[in-house]
């Protein structure tokens, strides 16, 4: 049996945490032969800590053979101690009357503290996935607050957008979702992101040629994927949770165990490719192998795509400017 690895999850008693922890403990994220120690962070408030305790009791009651230990805490330095993986899910939600700018600043405080704690106590190879919104900018803040860790190990979740786009395309083209390869979602995890199937294939043939509908792309597909989160809230009365947890599992599993040459979307610090300034956390296509991701470079960018990629970049630059004075 392998040595256990330490997986930190913040916001562990929240909706996504509840849909995520049991799957990590059952081996769906890191493999059925990889024991895990779960290190769970929640807010210090009594209600949050009591809810966390309840989640830990349920984890215990599953008797997962791969669950080698559990820690529940309100201290980031305890939760991140020697962590090999950190899933930063907990964030300040947008309250009534709260401006976008205030939300950004409230979350900047959280992710500065958590970045510093990771810097101080996590494994030097910790792989970080930020789910809590605004995910890309929160990941940027955590990365900037952790100067001793590898910047490339701070990532943001665009996998839910990627998976949403895959299903919309599979429905439109009437093909199995698993047959679609080489999809990309560029940019910010927000309604401005740009799902792009120009390179996508089905059984090796072009998906774009098969669909051949520019109007559907611009006026149905892109807005549907962009507004999917809002549509879920409208239907369910609550934001996406199981699908978000599933996307987090997909993201971390692929990063840790590899994609076998297939493209997936990750929000990663830019190396300057595609006209995105260095360091901005931007959704790009990657392949993963041996615990590392590699960005797919030099894809052609047409005028429509350039405009879409610049629009989502402008939003990220605006967010970055809004927190620049804190970093
Ligand atoms: P919930 O409100 O159900 O849970 C969040 C939990 O985090 C709460 O239990 C809260 O006590 C805890 N928390 C808040 N601040 C914390 C801190 N500083 N340290 C530790 N714990 C803290 O939200 P949930 O539905 O689970 O969503 C969590 C986050 O994911 C939200 O920011 C949400 O916007 C974001 N999402 C991101 C997605 C993505 O694709 N990147 C999609 C789904 C989701 O909307």
TrEMBL record:
NAD(+) binds at residues 11-17, 107, 114, 131-133. Its EC number is 1.1.1.37. Residues 159-320 form the Lactate/malate dehydrogenase C-terminal domain. Residues 5-149 form the Lactate/malate dehydrogenase N-terminal domain. GO terms for biological process: malate metabolic process; tricarboxylic acid cycle. Substrate binds at residues 94, 100, 133, 164. It is an enzyme of class 1 (oxidoreductase). The keyword Oxidoreductase applies. It comes from the Bacteria. The keyword Oxidoreductase applies. Keywords: NAD, Oxidoreductase, Tricarboxylic acid cycle. Pfam families: Ldh_1_C, Ldh_1_N. GO terms for molecular function: L-malate dehydrogenase (NAD+) activity. Gene3D superfamilies: Lactate dehydrogenase/glycoside hydrolase, family 4, C-terminal (3.90.110.10), NAD(P)-binding Rossmann-like Domain (3.40.50.720). The active site is at 189 (proton acceptor). It catalyses: (S)-malate + NAD(+) = oxaloacetate + NADH + H(+). Catalyzes the reversible oxidation of malate to oxaloacetate. Belongs to the LDH/MDH superfamily. MDH type 2 family. This is Malate dehydrogenase.
